[in-house]
Amino acid sequence: MAEISFPLPDLGEGLIEATVLEWLVSPGDQVERNQPLVEVETTKSAVELPSPQAGKVVRIHGGPGDKINVGEPLIVFEVPDNTAGIVGTVPKEEAPKRRVRLSAVLDED
Amino acid sequence: MSGRHTGEQHHHTVEGTDPQLYVEVHEPAADAGLRPVLLLHGFSSSTKLNWEDTGWLAALLEAGRRVITVDLPGHGRSGAPEDMDSYSPSRIRADLLQVAFDAGARPLRDGDPVSGLDVIGYSLGSRLAWEFGATQPELVHRLVLGGPNIADPLAAFDLVAAQRYLADGTPIADESTAGLLKMAQGLPSNNIFALLSLVEAIKGEPFDPAEAIPHMPMLLVAGEKDDRAATMPELAELGAKSGSLVEQLLIPGRNHSNVITSRAFKQGAIDFLSV
Amino acid sequence: MSNAILESEAAMADGTPNHGVEQLSMQQALNRALDEVLAGNPKALIFGEDCGRLGGVFRITDGLQAKYGTGRVFDTPLAESGILGMSVGLAMAGFHPIPEVQFDGFAYPAINQIVCQIARMNYRSRGTMPMPVTLRVPSFGGIRAPEHHGESLEALFAHVPGLKVVSPSNPHEAYHLLKYAATRPDPVIFMEPKSRYWQKGGVNFDSADGSDSPAGDSPTGANVMRAGRHVTLVAWGAMVARCLQVAELAAEDGIDVEVLDLRWLKPIDEAALVASVRKTRRAVVVHEAPLTSGLGAEVAQLVTQGCFDTLKAPVERITGFDVPYPSGDLEDEYIPNIDRILFGIQRVLEYRRG
Predict the structure, then answer these.
(1) Among the listed ranges A87-91, B33-37, C118-122, which one has the minimum average pLDDT value?
(2) Cβ contact C174:C192 at 8 Å
(3) I need a labelling partner for A33 at 20 to 30 A (CA). Which of B231, B242, C309, C332 fits?
(4) B188 CA to chain A: closest CA distance, Å?
(5) Which residues, if any, are the signal sequence (chain A) (predicted)?
């Protein structure tokens, strides 16, 4: 298995840091893509960050009240080795499906 | 984000002028078969900041609720009308009623869980929701009021000082006014002059919760450290005295700006509205 | 860098050659090939975006930096013109660069370095400055990736004098073709079919000449992957596996399809192509790239030239469309699917002269 780390994303408005309010996942949890991960607060607003991907949570950085800079590690996921980092989706190998049938009179000249 | 987005500037004129409100109706992937939920954001906020980025919209859709969002005038993607009347709370309530009906909300009917409308407000949105519930008893089923206050902090806003500050930088003496203005200026998307129009209109129609009290069940929610909602128990008492079912939920450790993302708040609201 | 190279020469001793037959994914097969190339040639260097510490976004260079050091396997800035420009200088200085362009669409910023320098330096220098550059390009579509991650550039590269272009279709081919390409004195564009990276297959390490393939006795030229009598499907990269599926389905209808894996797209193995179509007398060429000026046109011309007297139908081309490669949701509509290929076969089967 490989690990893939996600930093605190750019929260816009020129914000450079955020304070962790509450983690909604714990190490060991299997999370889905877009599942809420953590509540953080900036000087402008409080936001809930959705998970950028599916995977098992290995580590989380910062407890309630801790400040994290944009770009610093926020969460680490465990993913299968051969899919780590890929842009896109690993294709599924499916049984071939057809609608077209061939018909031909083959003159064996 | 699942659901159909029918975002558009609202073109239904209620009182002669187009309020230019930006309305979206979000459909859940799996409908729980309950009435729609109208979300009302706070001063200097927006649907995006108050409800989307905070995870509310996703949580409500996940719970199978159909959600109506609207940006208040001068906020978010709504227009900023020139006329002062567009910002008055009574006019906004009339526009909201039209928005709700256009989005398919229908008057309550006994035993019909699809009829009626649930409303969740935050801060200024809670004031509007309180008044909306009090004046629309045949439509509103339940209310959730976040960060509520017995008086509107905007009513005490020093408009003259704010305008002077914006004109030539003269410092603002009143701390609350300075804080609110700083908050409003913090977001580049805000139309600061439209927000001041809203403040002026609110000063003309200050919040008087005793004037009309909602009779539907209410859930009042605030952060334990929310100074702006310190009067929440008084509001609850006002409702209870007039016979309303009022529940209160205090979220530990949170204040007026960060209680909004709280899972306990969201879950409390979803549970309260799931009947 | 010189210290790192000395270190890696020490590590070279344990670059154990592989033996026997193993079931590997194409990722693993390519990784093994690169491992052996690094072990066997101290002048071989691997670099590109995320090639070092991460081991590549597709894990093709996984573990190689740890084994050979940061002097031989390293990350570059996100600048393809720099990656290929550096390859020019390194090749001039006697190294064998094996750069990676992370995705096909990111080769465009390096076209100047590839076309104007790498492809013609040997020619320009009258043979005194060969460019042994093996450029690995994860290529073609099929993984529902965003724009610039699903392009088919073979015709573009094949058009440039001085470049060789090759694309493997399975793990065995991937291993042997990469090992071969990375030992050539000439620039080779190595197009890896990214949608086949995870597919496992037997790799016969002992057949250094690729003799595990039905007709392949050499890492050069085309391979007949399945012999047939009625029609030849010509394909490369990921389309070979699809054509083999089509051949199975056609057999249910009594049609005997030959599948020719072209492998080398520059130079094209004209002799093998003509031999196959002379036998079947019908040809359908399948590729993911857009139709117009695609390599299918070149194949059709070679077939026409070599088989005109016996050909029973015009060569059919089943290809992508003349549009930018679409977003993931539309990918299945764009890439030639089984039915479109069957239609192409039907058209050449029912064609009658006059």
Answers:
(1) A87-91
(2) yes
(3) C332
(4) 8
(5) none
Q: How far apart are the first and last CA of chain A?
A: 59
Span B52-59, mean pLDDT?
95
Q: How far apart are CA B92 and CA B14, in angstroms?
A: 10
Which residue of chain C comes nearest to A91, CA vs CA?
C143
Mean pLDDT score across all residues of chain C: 91
pLDDT digits (tens, 9 = 90+) for C206-260: 765 544 444 445 788 999 999 999 999 999 999 999 999 999 999 999 999 999 9
Across all residues in chain B, what is the average pLDDT?
90
Strands B218-223, A2-7: pairing kind: unpaired
Structural domains for chain C: 3-204 (3.40.50.970), 223-350 (3.40.50.920)
Interface test with C, best of A5, A102, A108 (most C CBs within 10 A): A102
Answer yes or no: is pLDDT of B1 > 60: no
Give the domain A2-83 fold.
OB fold (Dihydrolipoamide Acetyltransferase, E2P) (2.40.50)
Active site residues of C: 149
Question: What letter represents residue B54's amino acid?
Answer: T
Contact C26, C195 (CB under 8 A): no
pLDDT score for C14: 44
Name the band, by pLDDT with cuts 50, 70 and 90, for residue C1: very low
Which whole number is the average pLDDT over C56-62? 93
Q: Does A84 touch chain C (CB under 8 A)?
A: yes
Pull the structure tokens for residue B37. Answer: 């939920």
Residue B4 burial (C-beta neighbours within 10 Å; 0-12, 13-18, 19+)? exposed
Cα dist from C329 to A98, B2, C143, C291, C336, whole Å? 20, 17, 10, 21, 15
Q: Is A88 on the interface with C (CB under 8 A)?
A: yes
The residue among B272, B264, B59, B250 whose CA lies nearest residue A21 is: B264
Instruction: Decide: B32 and B56 in contact? Cβ < 8 Å.
Output: no
Query: Within 10 Å of residue C293's Cβ, how many Cβ atoms?
Result: 13
pLDDT at A108: 58
Which residue's structure tokens are 């090639």? C51
Residue C42 and residue C63: Cα distance in Å, rounded? 17
Q: Rounded distance, CA C33 to CA B112, Å? A: 69
Model-wide pTM > 0.80:
no
Q: How far is CA C36 from CA A26, B90, B243, C173, C176, in A?
A: 42, 78, 83, 15, 11
C-alpha distance from A4 to closest chain C C-alpha (Å): 10
Structural tokens at position C322: 């003349």
- Nearest-Cα distance to chain A for B237, in Å, is 29
HEC letters along chain B: CCCCECCEECCCCCCCCCCCCEEEEECCCCCCCCCCEEEECCCCCCHHHHHHCCCHHHHHHHCCCCEEEEECCCCCCCCCCCCHHHHCHHHHHHHHHHHHHHCCCCCCCCCCCCCCEEEEEECHHHHHHHHHHHHCCCCEEEEEEECCCCCCHHHHCCHHHHHHHHHHCCCCCCHHHHHHHHHHHHCCCCCHHHHHHHHHHHHHCCCCCCCCCCCCCEEEEEECCCHHHCCHHHHHHHHHHCCCCEEEEEECCCCCCCHHHCHHHHHHHHHHCCC
User: H or E element: which one contains C73?
Assistant: strand C73-75
CA C244 to centroid of chain Cα atoms? 17
Touching check for A94 and chain C: CB below 8 Å? no
Q: How many CB atoms lie within 10 A of CB B198?
A: 28
The answer, yes or no, to whether residue B7 has pLDDT greater than 70, is no
Query: Can you give the pLDDT at residue B83?
Result: 87
Amino acid at B38: L
Cα-Cα-Cα-Cα dihedral of C13, C15, C21, C25, to 10°?
A: 170
What is this model's ipTM?
Answer: 0.76
CB contact under 8 A, A21 and B53: no
